[in-house]
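Hey, does this match?
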Amino acid sequence: FSGDVGAAATNPGEDHIPVGDMKQHIPLMEGFHKRYMVSNKACRLWVERVRKLDVEAMIPQHGRPFMGKDKVEEFLNWFENLQCGVDLM
């Protein structure tokens, strides 16, 4: 469970559907993460720690689950490059 990391604004009743196409899912996550994540440095540190674990699924508290190591890795690749928070000031 990843808390707010990976959260997305999905349609009601769709939170249980695993992420399919990451490119289509990014717009549902991007605004929230740009506003609520403090900086890219913090994102990179989080990703660095998660990559040391054997993660097969990532379940955010809001939005769709990332099921399978490939989907988790797709998310991590996006998240570690996200410019957010103070980076946007």
User: Anything to note?
Assistant: The chain has a mean pLDDT of 97. The radius of gyration is 12 Å. The longest strand covers residues 57-58.
